[in-house]
UniProtKB/TrEMBL annotation:
One of its GO terms (molecular function) is calcium-dependent phospholipid binding. GO terms for cellular component: plasma membrane. InterPro entries: C2_dom (IPR000008), C2_domain_sf (IPR035892), C2B_Copine (IPR037768), Copine (IPR045052), Copine_C (IPR010734), VWF_A (IPR002035), vWFA_dom_sf (IPR036465). PROSITE patterns: C2, VWFA. It comes from Nothobranchius furzeri (Turquoise killifish). PANTHER family: COPINE, COPINE-7. GO terms for biological process: cellular response to calcium ion. This is Copine 7. Gene3D superfamilies: C2 domain (2.60.40.150), von Willebrand factor, type A domain (3.40.50.410). Keywords: Repeat. Belongs to the copine family.
Amino acid sequence: MRLSGEIADQNQPVFSGSGLNKSFQELEAPSSFLSPWTTMNDVQEVTSPATSLTGPATCVTKVELRVSCKALLDRDTLNKSDPCVVLMVQNNGQWVELDRTEVIKSNLHPVFGKVFCLDYYFEEVQKLRFEVYDIHGTHSIGTRDDDFLGGMECTLGQIVAQKKMVKPLLLKYGKYAGKSTITVHAEEISGNNGYVELSFCAKKLDDKDLFSKSDPFLEIFRINDDGTEQLVHRTEVIKNNLNPVWEPFKVSLMSLCSCNEERKLKCLVWDYDSRGKHDFIGEFFATFREMQKISSGNKVLWDCMNPKYKQKKRNYKNSGVVILTDLKLHRVYSFLDYIMGGCQIHFTVAIDFTASNGDPRNSCSLHYINPYQPNEYLKALIAVGEICQDYDSDKRFSALGFGARIPPNYEVSHDFAINFNPDDDECEGIQGVVEAYQNCLPKIQLYGPTNVSPIINRLAKVAAGDGNIKDASRYHILLILTDGVVTDMADTREAIVRASYQPLSIIIVGVGNADFTDMQILDGDDGVLRSPKGEPVLRDIVQFVPFRDFKTVSVFSPSVTCSLSIHFSTSWHLTALKQLNRIFFLMQYPQLV
């Protein structure tokens, strides 16, 4: 692995503790249980640190971060601090909150169950800040009721390189927070590990309370090769119940067992105490291989044992039984899995023929055909098309145009085949699209406006038909080349929301020097795109790219081809196949992120 530009900062960072004047709001939990580690809602929505941090990126991998602290300052008079860690990322020189851990009550040595999942770009300096706060109730961070316990700055590359980073916590102006330290563990999650969903319950647990029943919760630790233990998951607390049924949870196979089915897992059951002095009920050891026996109809359960009771009590049997009630194994498929499994990519290009491009006979026009070099439309078309055609089985691409008056009646059309064959708009390969484009220009009259919703609706309808195929083996990519801001913005937003339910992704490439600021609305990176009526997209299917920013990118560089290890991320209909969540073009061209 090559880490470029990751140089440890020798200077002590200065913390103001003021970057988080945002409110905590506990997630609503079922009334049957109380979770003292309630995960807080994100205050500011950030897609990922990869999209938040600027700069060129090449290869990307998923990284999971786990956090623990030791010897935190005790700010409370009667009890110990109730710590929470806030993860910040640097975005354009500003610190933005990415996520928060749960709040652990009355604990100066917390081990947090929250897992931070980040995109790690090997050659990008991704600055992170971890800030620890003593939280009182649900008040907002930054008020006088909350105390800043210290912070630490580093880069994601430094954490990944060390795998386990231990650093002192610093207060404002670089002052050490006593002997407080923070530990961050990093694990890279490879593309085809998948994840597992587990459901546990327990029966007849020991009663540790005098006037009520135990308040049990379960912790699962992975035992590493060096004998150390890594917290994998901590369940919620079930109040006053000796037969708890815990909520199902998901965890990656890398996190659970390092993809080793025989790796030992240590499981502990505790009786929760609000002062942090939890009573030990019992423990048991398991492996993922044992857990998988449930799939064959076998009952999977373990005796929850208290070693002290076993040693002292002659007739001691157990302190209860823990039962695995359900196991669902989900494989995370890579892009190549789908291609090799027969999924076909169908490529469609839509070209803007509005008058704002200029007269094609004029050398200043964006559509001017220069005999010595291609215009920007052709450059963008070739750059994207040559990548996509490798995954298109028949190498036939649909080529459409919009915004022009077309023969024979020269009426304005926002959805026409540039080969003027409405029954068959496909061209033979990228070269066929180029030839159709060049032959089309002299026959049409550039007009307007820039309406793209008709073509999006048309392709969504085609994709919907393909979506009814039982094996779900066809995926569509629509490349829209345009020189200006979309005129029918409301209709386009509506069309994109409808299309987000289909096996379709849209790449919009802005050609020329127009102001494309408004086009970022269609790209979901700055927030969830919604229809005019407020309906959100099912998934992010649009990526907007101003071509002028990337004219000099080498499309055949090794750093581009290494990014083939990409993923389909969410289901695009009711079959097992999953859709392209991040646009295929930018998976191949990570420089354009």
